[in-house]
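May I ask for a protein sequence together with how it folds?
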Amino acid sequence: MLKIVDKYLEMDNVNLYELAKSYGTPIVVFSERRILENLKSVNDLKNIYSKLEIYYAVKACSNISILKIIRGADLGVEVSSIGELFKACVAGFKADNIIFNGPAKKLKEIELAVRLGVKCINVDSMSELIKISHTANRLGKPVNIALRVDVPVRSNGIAIKSAGTKFGVDVKDIDSLIDFILKSKYLNLTGLHVHIGSQNTCLESWIRSAEFLSSIYSMIEGRGIRLQHINLGGGLPVDYAHNAQDISPIFKPLISDYEIVNSVANTLRRSIGDVEIYLEPGRRIIANTSILLSSIEAIKLKNGERWIIIDAGWNILNSVRVLRWYYEVTSVNKANAEEFSSYRIGGPLCDGNDVFHDLQGESQGNPILPKYRLLPKYLEVGDVIAILDVGAYLLDLMNNFNGYLKPEVLMIKLNRDVVSIRSREKLIDLVAGEVDAEGLKEAYKVLEMLISYEKS
């Protein structure tokens, strides 16, 4: 996907420096080719286990153009809100290929899901089960459900860990939920669901989750309910570290998709037979399909350390602040440099946490990360850098902190055409939802004044 031609970094044979100068920075660039390669890779997992079904986790990236590509690969989707459900339907997904998840489903969301006839609703609590039952009774429509179980298994992953969190039902409460389901006319319990962690690089936790769910599966079947599937959620890990050494396995997984699926399938096959297995990968499909291009706006030496200040911060790459996440950084217009220096990287925001983390200072408490970023020794203001593998949880977590606008999002198509898949925000967008019609007129006057100053 990436290569160096002369001194420039190219993505799918497109010069990224020319792209940055043409469209301006910061700017996000996706590769259609890499998305399709990843989709083929996860679909190939079905060769390991024929009863495997893949549902893309929309929360990882809900862009319509990307969802359409995913639909074209015959994947289903997992959604967690009416907004994600809406976007999935706009992208062309049929209801029977949509799993509805989330811990706080509103009555109107449940009613819409039941009316549409979604593949399955993952039930997160008894109170939610009651809501679903009442809705199904009122509409006179059967609904497929799965119980999300809070299994006592911890992963070494991030963000959403199952054991002891807000998600799912306690194992001790399952009997009472089954009692309720057995009395319901329209509830059809088809499976069990768990999600033990994003970026889960611990094979043992995958196996233990499968073992635990298989025991619950057998218990429920003992109550007279024939289940159809086990849903192990997402968590297939991605390599963020590339050539970095001595880095946490959270960023550089030592297990493969094949090992995970093969181990889980064998575990379930031994205990409960050839049950359908669902996976809900998001990060695995979309993370390494995108880069963020950012320009250097300032260079300075502080306390003996070189700093570059770039025009992209956690307003764009939110996981840098929330998760202190690691992304590889490289030069775009000096990509063939032979001499390097160590740099600290800061974003444009008026917030001391707007930095790209390393082992020292701002990254204290995070697993092993490089001490500094190695970049070309002779960087200049105006140079462009690329932040790699940013596709997951990028577009959906952007914000307007400090009044910064969300950047344009491009995609390089298979034929090398570059198309916009999300427009760059405009200044007027910052106030459009906060003022009435008269206020909007005044805002446009201010905008015209600013434009006239800019031209003068």
In short: The longest strand covers residues 290-302. The chain has three domains: 2-28+288-422, 33-287, 426-456. The chain has twelve helices and 21 strands.
